[in-house]
């Protein structure tokens, strides 16, 4: 997916919580609350592939008895289509500008723009054929996360092979995969690589695949309980 990151600053007026009537407030935090819901709606409007996230928030002055005068937050959009990312950004800017009705000024700064990446059709087709030849089910999908392969694709044909995680959880300590699942991705990858050169019914090829599977499981799951956290969950934060 392509990504766009923004820093958003909302500036109202810091005032005493007890002496400032509700109709006189320029509350930057309530403006942020409205903007955060607007960001969520932007993501929903661009389903199924759109992603919209408010990830950080800083409130100033940060006192329980002061109306917040300034809020700084991050907004991130992801989508596999550039025109959709453009529409999402325009919607964010409109929602931010609308906070002027609350007496709150908004500044939206785009700090990162990463264009969507389309992987090589031939690599995708070979990976798909390899998985089907091994009797696995396949589904073409868009990855929402960033990967090193995106950069490799700029200098060489590339694609990626994924396996499921329990409940779809990834990049979290709760992530879990099983050895038999982990076996399928590298097996498909090796089959795709060797397919033009070898016959999968050739005894030598079959032996090579078995050795590869054993080595893969030994590397990935050595010392781990059968249903313990997967490698990414153990090492990614």
TL;DR of this structure?
The protein is an alpha+beta fold and 237 residues long.
Can you describe this structure?
The chain is an alpha+beta fold. The protein contains seven helices and six strands. It has helices spanning 28-45, 82-97, 121-133, 148-152, 179-194, 203-221, 231-235, and strands spanning 2-11, 15-16, 51-60, 66-67, 70-79, 105-114. The protein has a four-stranded antiparallel β-sheet with strand order 3-5-1-6, covered by helices on one side. A two-stranded antiparallel sheet has the order 2-4. The radius of gyration is 24 Å and the shape is elongated. The model is unreliable at 223-237 (pLDDT under 50). Keywords: Hydrolase. One of its GO terms (molecular function) is hydrolase activity, acting on carbon-nitrogen (but not peptide) bonds, in linear amidines. Its EC number is 3.-.-.-. It is an enzyme of class 3 (hydrolase).
Shape verdict: elongated
How many helix segments? Answer: 7
Classify the secondary structure makeup into a structural class: alpha+beta
Order of helices and strands: EEHEEEHEHHHHH
Major sheet summary line: 4 strands, antiparallel
GO molecular function, one term: hydrolase activity, acting on carbon-nitrogen (but not peptide) bonds, in linear amidines
EC number: 3.-.-.-
Keywords: Hydrolase
Enzyme class: hydrolase
């Amino acid at each position: 997916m392509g990504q766009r990151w923004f820093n958003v600053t909302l500036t109202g007026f810091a005032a005493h919580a007890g002496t400032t009537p509700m109709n006189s407030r320029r509350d930057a935090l309530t403006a942020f609350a409205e903007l955060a819901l607007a960001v969520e709606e932007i993501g929903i409007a661009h389903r199924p592939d759109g992603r919209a996230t408010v990830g950080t928030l800083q409130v100033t002055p940060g006192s329980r008895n002061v109306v917040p005068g300034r809020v700084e937050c991050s907004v991130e959009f992801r989508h596999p289509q550039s025109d959709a990312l453009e529409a999402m950004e325009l919607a964010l800017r409109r929602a931010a500008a609308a906070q002027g009705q609350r007496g709150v000024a908004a500044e939206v700064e785009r700090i990162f723009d990463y264009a969507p990446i389309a992987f090589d059709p031939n690599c995708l087709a070979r990976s798909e054929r390899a998985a089907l030849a091994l009797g696995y089910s396949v589904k073409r999908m868009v990855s929402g996360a960033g990967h090193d392969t995106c950069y490799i694709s700029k200098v060489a044909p590339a694609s990626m092979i994924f396996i499921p995680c329990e409940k779809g959880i990834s990049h979290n300590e709760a992530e879990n995969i099983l050895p038999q699942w982990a076996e399928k991705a590298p097996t498909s990858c090796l089959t795709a690589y060797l397919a033009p050169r070898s016959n999968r019914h050739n005894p030598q090829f079959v032996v090579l695949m078995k050795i590869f599977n054993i080595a893969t499981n030994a590397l990935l799951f050595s010392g781990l309980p059968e249903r313990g956290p997967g490698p990414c969950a153990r090492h990614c934060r």
